[in-house]
Amino acid sequence: MSHAEQRTEGAGPFTTRVTWRLPGDGEAVWESRLARRRGVLAVRAPGSEARHRARADAVALRRLRRLNAVAATAFVIGGAFFAAGAGVAQFGSADATRLATIYFVGGLFFNTGGYASLLQVINAPRHVVGGRELVTHRWRWWSYEPMRLDWLSVFLLFTGTLVFGVNLLDSFLQGLNVHQVNRLIWVPDVVGCVLFLASGHLALVEVCHGRPRLLPRSLGWWIVAVNQLGSVLFMVSALAAYTRLSTGSPVNIDIANWGTLAGALCFSVGGVLQLFERP
């Protein structure tokens, strides 16, 4: 153990795991994702090598279960709407307004999932170094904690969903020239994708406690990895959707549609997996 009988792990200024000694030579381990998603703290009793999980109280567990269900379900449905919109754009004959409506409804579910995920971070039970239990605080609708890696990751995700909302609202506008289409629709799309990618990278750092690596036995890692793949596909789609000034047509509409469809399905799959990552 390091100074003050504790060891911290993470990346840069961010801490994602803390291990500390307990009286009698026991040990407790706090991990940010486990505490936030499952409401547990790993504890090893004195004289034993086996660890058990100390759970948060009933109030915190009810909060986490409900928020997890809302967030996961919202991403499943939002991803389904985006995939449906991309499928209609590629194969269907819906007009621009109907297509924009499908995407917009999906965007509302993404907004809901992003905010529910932020509430999970804000209201997660906290650890106290030296103790063997998680502490539940009063309910909050907002907090500002940029030095917490989990908060920063989810905040960027939620902000990304809001930026996508600008893109989706502007999609209802009619009679735009090429410059306006790129400025009002394409730019917010790319910015939203960048925020999603940054959020996903931080989530990987959190679950890996440092440099991203393969953790195939970790459900949390699979959720983050699938969602990050979806973010990459969204970015590919956005780049392919750029409208050329010379021709007035997208770079590659097929790649744009298929990238959106595949990326959206990734978020739906991630939402299904998240339903199993609960207290």
Secondary structure layout:
Elements: E1 6-11, E2 14-22, E3 26-31, H1 32-37, E4 40-44, E5 51-55, H2 58-91, H3 96-122, E6 126-127, E7 134-135, H4 149-170, H5 178-208, H6 219-240, H7 253-274
Report on the architecture of this protein.
Helices cover 59% and strands 13% of the residues. The protein is of the alpha+beta class and 279 residues long. Helix 2 (58-91) packs antiparallel against helix 7 (253-274).
Key structural traits:
2 domains; five-stranded antiparallel β-sheet; alpha+beta; elongated; 279 residues; 7 helices
Strand content: 5-15%
Mean pLDDT over all positions: 91
Radius of gyration: 21 Å
Major beta sheet summary: 5 strands, antiparallel
Coarse shape: elongated
**H/E element order:** EEEHEEHHEEHHHH
Provide the domain count: 2
The chain-level structural class is alpha+beta
- Portion of residues in helices? 55-70%
Strand order of the largest sheet: 1-2-3-4-5
Number of helices: 7
Unreliably modeled segments: none
The counted number of beta strands is 7
Report the end-to-end length measured between terminal Cα atoms. Answer: 29 Å
Could you give a short description of this structure?
This protein is of the alpha+beta class and 279 residues long. It is 59% helix and 13% strand.
